Amino acid sequence: MKLRSAESRTADLFAATPARRPHVSSPVALAPQALAPPALNPQPKQLWYAAVFPAMAQLESFAAPLQKLCLHAHAFTSFVSIEPPNALLLEVKGSVKLFGSLQQLHMDIDACWRRLALPAHSAIAPSTLAALWLARAGAASQIEDSKLLRESLAKVPVACTAWDAERLQTLRAMGVTHLGELMRLPRAGLARRLSPALVLDLDIALARQPAPRRAFVRRERFRERCDFETEIEHVAYLEKALEPLIERCARFLRRRQAGIQALQLKLRHREGPATCVQLGLASITSERRRLSDVLCQKLARLDLRAPVRGMELISGSLRALSASSRDVFAGFTGAGSRDSAPQLVERLRARLGEGAVYGVCLIPEHRPEAAWKRVHELRLTAAARVDEESIDQKLPRPVWLLNEPLSLPKPEIIQGPERIESGWWDGKGVARDYYVARHADGVRLWVFQERQSKRWYVHGVFA
Amino acid sequence: MPREIPLLADILADARVWKLKDASAAPARPVWSTGKSSLDARLPGGGWPTASLIEVLLDDTGLGEVQLFLPALVACQRAATRDSGDAPWLVWIAPPHEPYAPALAQQGIDLGRLLVVRPTTATEALWAAEQALSSGVCAAVLLWLKGTDDRWLRRLKLAAEAGGSLGVLFRPEKHRFESSPANLRIVMSHGSPCARVDLLKVQGGRPGPVDLGGP
What we know:
heterodimer, A: 463 residues, alpha+beta, five-stranded antiparallel sheet, 13 helices, B: 215 residues, alpha/beta, Rossmann fold, eight-stranded mixed sheet, two-stranded antiparallel ribbon
């Protein structure tokens, strides 16, 4: 076995199908794939169309134009990926049948760029990198079979790989100008001299390694304007006028099975800047009733400084609706349930302000004032109950905690002491003895004596 | 000829006769224990009534007034979780101090379902309470107020009935002589060794002082 693996290491390892793969781990400390080429997948599941736009290389910002091109490319396939700085990759295997044949599809996509008066080089290959390299080489090739990849890639200049300049310089110094010469070199040596990433790239190009890509997803938002024939002065009329807009927004979201968490309403006046009403929702939603409910709450609090001539409703970015919309039906009691918890929280927040509605949670801490905090991100959907078993049942804790301990004379002690000494590491260290005490008029207090100063403070009230 | 005197059993068998004892023993809605047997015994059904408004009049905090409701809050959260798998919310509006999370967790309250609301004005507090009570997702709404009028209390009571939640209103004691639509009115005052509790108004029960000394 040892012999065999040594043999295969020296042999030309980029042979299309290696007859024997070493089964023994190599003594050389390299990534395994650097030594053993993965098996070739003869029936590729994907076919990639690569388009390279040479004119775009000079542009300073390539993101926006490429994203626009992606929208055009979506006419041919649902999977479009951006390859910075100037190329697009389209997965076209699934579209071949629809467009008749691969040749037809290839011509159609090329025609699309021509219509845009955009010079482009294109190629189709079973792997992303092969398509990209072939397109950069300017060879309008069309390879469907992975077995032919090696042969056609051999003629591609090394410069088309877009590896970094230093590596290309090394290759040139070695006398390697085409990929064919590179593929004849032993893998292990290549990986050691240049980089394992280069070997991996070659494997990806030869469709031996999967290379998942990120698809371009179109960013959408709802945006609609509505102009009034007469100026509106009363908020009540605005609410009426808003109804169809909200209805359309909800329909827009429903069609996309998406929801939003933010919404903006712009009220335009005859002069001066538009009034902007921003609102955030407690959870992602697409329900018409919830949107209009919160908008109306916001509008009711609004002071119109001038009559409104028109308005515009702009949604925040669309989010996928989570499966927990069962909230809609999960009320407390069957008969009286009309709202869901997010709706209630939203309505309260819309009127009272974001910070005025919050929850509380525990923090595992010994210092009483640090053992809890406010939470503004509420778990609004049905969630498993957290078992608070860590809490010691025996130690008394008051329902009210004062924000700042108040100084008081030594009270009448009922229960205690409980020593709490903690927090030296963050500069807010405490060394206190806590007691339950009774105030003169019968109020039960949670007091402590500071151990150093021997002074007494009240920290909580047992209500 | 003397008039025929109907037997008591006949009268009771008459469907038109409404028996007070039965009505108070089996209320339409569940009740939640107060945690004090002496107080439970005085309340119709043996505990705080749900879907109603309870008014607690006291001048100072620290009399154990929240403690009287904590067992009920825990019980109704647990019961609803058992029935529907989703715990209902508890809303505390304008509490006089910060509710201390470890103490509430110690008592068994699901902190993930506790909402603290801090409105700036009394009207906003009342509005928030009405919204929360009528929403149907809250098991109980506790509200601390300095003063309010009869009209708002009536709205709160209707909201509590509509939403099926327990509304508790804490007010200063000076309001004890004002009329109030609350189903239950309690006055709490200082006492030794524990606070004194006076039932001012009990629908279906007898008003009077209660000794909280027992368990």
